[in-house]
Amino acid sequence: MNGSTACKRMAFKDFHTAPGLTETDEDRRRKRSLIGGDLALRRQHGKPVQFNGRWILDPIFRDDDLQSLRQFCQQQANSELAVEVGFQLGEFAVEYCVERPVSRLVGFEVRKHFCEETDALLQSCGIESARLCLADARTILPEILEPGTLDHLYVFFPDPWWKPRHVRKRLVSADFLADAAVWLRPGGRFLLKTDVQAYAQWAHALLMSNPMFTTQILADRHAGLPWTLRERRCELHGHPTWAIEAVRNEIVTRRQDFLVD
């Protein structure tokens, strides 16, 4: 995650999407960035993954799981909805649910063994307020969330994808933030954590350029939340971390009105 010194010195101008893309080119770029490829093609030609777990859902290939997720994400009185993208071994997810028993958490992970290990941890703690999705969040969130219904969107220690040809794989992008502004309620929070200073600066600038968010780098790098395993390791080895908070502003009706160029 920290990257080599050479990677940290790479020019940031190489990390931005080239201007002047046509709509067709933009659609293709977004599809290439998805883990596993285009959702429609996966559903047409792919096969479901076999896994063990009570709370693991496959909304790509199983319609019942997709409908279950939609119902789980429907607005409920006095119950916040949070999404964590890339929960890995699930330490944060479990502690979050323990501390907030009336909240609901949807976690996304693309690695089956992480889903199965986190599911086992949830069951051992008796937690029933979380759902684990074996899918790229960017493909499924538009299908399960109604506009303005998400309270918290957490992205912790994402891969910075240093190489210019890999920039399109970055989760945090103008496209993703435009979608997040639709999903989050007014006052809802997008929170990014990273242990790479250059990536924190880049992401902060990207968030600052989106008028739908009020953005700041938090003095409390843990943001008042349970620590992730990554944070514990950084603390142990003396590596700094950064937490960037973006709070959703006024109501938006059209995504294209605030998509950052």
Q: What is the mean pLDDT?
A: 85
CATH class: Alpha Beta
CATH superfamily: Vaccinia Virus protein VP39
Low-confidence stretches: 1-26
Q: Give the topology string: H per helix, E per strand.
A: HHHEHEHEHEHEHEHEHE
Question: In the CATH classification, which architecture applies?
Answer: 3-Layer(aba) Sandwich
Secondary-structure class? alpha/beta
Backbone CA Rg:
18 Å
Output the number of helix runs.
10
How many domains? The number is 1
Helix content: 25-40%
Largest sheet: 8 strands, mixed
| CA(first)-CA(last) distance | 28 Å
Strand content: 15-25%
Name the overall outline: globular
Count the strands? 8
CATH topology name, in short, is Rossmann fold
